[in-house]
Amino acid sequence: MSERWSADDIWALAPDAASRKAAAQVARTPSSWPVRGLRSAAGVAEVLWGECSGSGATPYRAAVHFLEPGSPAYRCSCPSRKFPCKHTLALLHLWSGGHVAEAGDPPGWVAGWLAERGGAAAGGTSPRPAADAAGRQEQREQRARRREDRVADGLAELELWLRDQIGSGLAGARDPGYAHYDDMAARLVDAQAARIADRVRDLAGIGRVADWPSRLLAEYALLRLLISGYRRRDRLPAPLGATVRSRAGIPAAADESAPVRDTWQVLGQAFFDAGQVRGRRIWLRGGDGRAAALVSFARPGQAPDAPVRIGTEVDADLAFHPAESRAVVTRRHAERRTGPPRGGTVADALASWARALADDPWLEAWPVVVADSVIGRNEGWWLADPTGAALPLHAASAPPWQWAAVTGGAPATVAAEWTPHGLRPLTVWDPDGAPVQLTGESV
């Protein structure tokens, strides 16, 4: 199987936010691409192509040649002046989601384009010589270095922007309008730092919360810390350097060469928005306590993939992304229903969060399980354990009527996400030991 790019890789290529939105719409229905294929060699993609049915009788023909030094080359028969166009982005998105299969020789219109470019031969699928494989590897490394340099330029511009925000004070920062943040986010997208761009856009909603000044300053500080870390990324310890690259939007594929096999208990799921797509984060916990997040995305109107079920435990191999809890299931061996997971106290939950935060200061959520917990209200909604220690509920999870209805006020085991802004309950187990999924919505 050819190595596929992530959604972040692809959306970072978009010339603007409108192109990202349009591409997501075009890619929504794979059946509108009756012709699509891929040719690769030694597990490395060479050329990708597809024909998209449009409003006219003639489909739009799009192709991507991955052998261009530093960046891929694109071709599309549509009249758009944007580069890459929405059809090319949609085709790449379908490929990243596994909706394009290996097809051997490309059709004539693709072969002719490649011949014009002086690239791959029009026919034949014989293996490439070792020197050519080494050349492709060098081109991939050049592309990676070029992207890192572009991200560095974008972060340098973000640093100046942050200085301007602090210099002008917080008086006008409560509700400056979405355009104030969208402009900076668009420049970060141009710099292929889409993940940071999304974080900058999220600043626009902070002015609606009660403690907005401290929240906004904390987010500014985390962005500044990321800029500083990225500037020193080659001098950081390897795990922290990988975390910084990931948070800056430099993708790294899951390491399928070293899968981790364990019996993973499925704790709960949370939904979140990621630009023009919808995301789902499913939390697992291994027998040794290791956390894993299965993250998937879907286009508008569709549900993200759910490879496991809440309230079960699965014997499976997981491949983890470097320096992240994010993982993918590479092989399933068995699955069975199970009762409530092993829970701890509020102190245990906070200790787990502290350890995770030491590895990733930009962490936004972490799975915790609290046993014999109850909910109450005292200047806000809280979860309390038998020791009397308590955690505040996230504003999006209060008031917790669904939880109260399930438990009837009795102590129960709850799996939740702990975030810098409070606890977001995901699953509660009723008195009979059956799991009940809560909303798990992010804001």
Would you give an account of this structure?
- This protein is α+β, with helices and mostly antiparallel strands and 443 residues long.
- The protein folds into four domains: 7-128, no CATH class; 144-248; 260-337, OB fold (Dihydrolipoamide Acetyltransferase, E2P) (Beta Barrel); 346-437.
- It contains eleven helices and 15 strands.
- It has helices at 7-13, 17-26, 86-96, 108-117, 130-168, 178-190, 194-202, 212-231, 238-248, 346-359, 401-407; strands at 35-41, 44-52, 60-65, 73-76, 260-274, 277-285, 291-298, 312-320, 326-337, 366-377, 381-384, 390-392, 412-419, 422-429, 435-437.
- The strands form three sheets. It has a six-stranded antiparallel β-sheet with strand order 12-11-10-13-14-15. The chain has a five-stranded mixed beta barrel with strand order 5-6-7-9-8.
- A hairpin with a 5-residue loop joins strand 14 (422-429) and strand 15.
- The protein starts with 6 loop residues before the first helix and ends in a 6-residue tail after the last strand.
- Mean pLDDT is 84; it is low at 119-131.
